[in-house]
Amino acid sequence: MPATHAEWMAAAADILRALNADEPREALLSRIARHTCTLVRTDSCSVMLLDAAGERLVLEAGHALTERYRRDLEARAPLLVHPDRRESDLPAAQAVRERRTVLLRDVGATDPTWPWRDLALAEGIRSVLAVPLGGVDGRADDLAGVLVGYTDRVREFAPDELAAAELMAQYAGTVLTTAGLRASQQETIRRLERAEAQDRDVMRLLLDDAGLDGVLDALAAAVDASVTLETPEGSPLGRAGPGVAGVPPVVRGRALRRALSAVDERRTTVRAPLGDAACAWVVPIAVAGELVARLWVARTDGWADRAAIERFSLLVALELLTHRQAVETELRLTRDLAVELVSGTGDERSLLARSDALHHDLRRPHTVVLAPVGAAPATLPGGSALVGEHEGALVVLVPEGDRERLAAAFAGVDGPVVIGPTVTATDGYPPAWRTVRTAHALAVGAGTRGVLDLDDLGVAGLLLETGTPDGLRRLADHRLGALEEHDRTRGTDLVATLREWLRRGCSTADTARALHVHPHTIGYRLGRVATLARCDPRRRDGLFELQVALMVRAVQAGAARP
């Protein structure tokens, strides 16, 4: 008996109420299946929808079907729209493929090899009626799936029953389309609400001065993802959220390098090609038109919200700009402080107060270093140094610096670099600076490169504080010039013998043993030194002048004190 008008109206009203109440899709489809049984006079019913690729049917809901049947249906074989073998075809797949109603009159009459035959018979299914559902996007040529009715006896369907089934399938398609539109609208509303909430979060972070770490933590929480900030060269600047293995990758293949080039050059957000391990966005962070960082946002279960990421990226850029300005301000203040210390301008109270404001303890001993402009190493022993430019050179004041490590830090610099005295009070910086300036001038005049540590000169190095470079250079030339010329032209070792004699405490015997010669030879050489230098090293006044001359030569050569 065909369904009555009242039954149709009751079914339509019930489904419409469920739709307006935002009933979950599975419950809505189950309601459609139940009303189909009533209107089409079937014993049970299922609603199968196409997967995203349109290649497979998925049983989404049903009425009066056992859980065992629903569970085992797909376990027997995939419900393919285009099966590889005719024996694996389904009435539901045929209805979708051919876009028409398909009736399987008697399951018992099917080929025994049909995969679902035993399962259907065990369920009590004898006849199957499959009707294609309308499109989910409202297009007549697009199908959502299929509506399938089952009877527990072999039967034919009258024309009015087939018409009722097709009308119900059309109505179900319309309901699915409407539900999809409502879900899309609701998702849009939720997305707008999330965006508004994120805007409030961004504003709160800005007003609370959360800092870079706070911004990265908020971003990781907002998109439930791993967040890494790195320099354009790949060095990490910050991390937040749960880590995702391999993000950012250490080894970067050709495809990833191309993607990162797009980030750097076109300043556009890209998806990083990382294979199946993670879904990662890479966002450029630019400050004043300059690329300063890349932001990696990664998940293992789908893509994070790009709009939210880009919203937070503006705050990341602002934090980096603020940090840059703070660093530049601190550098300027430390440069000014370093220059005032070595030039002697500014009183002690003011200098100490300014160093405290910069969180720099000027009460600790500092080693004074002179280096070429632009030659300060990235890291120095002893912690943060005060660095400035004065008199065409770089002033580097290193707190409690280990002199050997300090020399190693400057080893690659195209010098000369002079490591001067270690100062313990503010009034000690000007004389220390004069000392290193004098030593530097002597080294430059001699064409010396490398690092010169004035501690190697011992007590004689103190003369550099009061002496002038030209005066010291003339003294060395006056006393040692003739000796050096004699050694160069005649192949003698007078200067080396003098230096070794002084190193051996002016002991002729010890010097002879060190040089593997007779003591008389040492005596003869010292006599030649006295004649050529017009200054006898065996006399106290002569000894001092020759020591000073050799010290000047040591500075000029960048070598250790004799």
Automatic annotation (TrEMBL):
<dbReference type="InterPro" id="IPR051448">
    <property type="entry name" value="CdaR-like_regulators"/>
</dbReference>
<dbReference type="InterPro" id="IPR003018">
    <property type="entry name" value="GAF"/>
</dbReference>
<dbReference type="Pfam" id="PF13556">
    <property type="entry name" value="HTH_30"/>
</dbReference>
<dbReference type="InterPro" id="IPR025736">
    <property type="entry name" value="PucR_C-HTH_dom"/>
</dbReference>
<dbReference type="InterPro" id="IPR029016">
    <property type="entry name" value="GAF-like_dom_sf"/>
</dbReference>
<comment type="similarity">
    <text>Belongs to the CdaR family.</text>
</comment>
<dbReference type="Pfam" id="PF01590">
    <property type="entry name" value="GAF"/>
</dbReference>
<dbReference type="InterPro" id="IPR042070">
    <property type="entry name" value="PucR_C-HTH_sf"/>
</dbReference>
<protein>
    <submittedName>
        <fullName>Helix-turn-helix domain-containing protein</fullName>
    </submittedName>
</protein>
<feature type="domain" description="GAF">
    <location>
        <begin position="24"/>
        <end position="186"/>
    </location>
</feature>
<dbReference type="InterPro" id="IPR041522">
    <property type="entry name" value="CdaR_GGDEF"/>
</dbReference>
<dbReference type="Pfam" id="PF17853">
    <property type="entry name" value="GGDEF_2"/>
</dbReference>
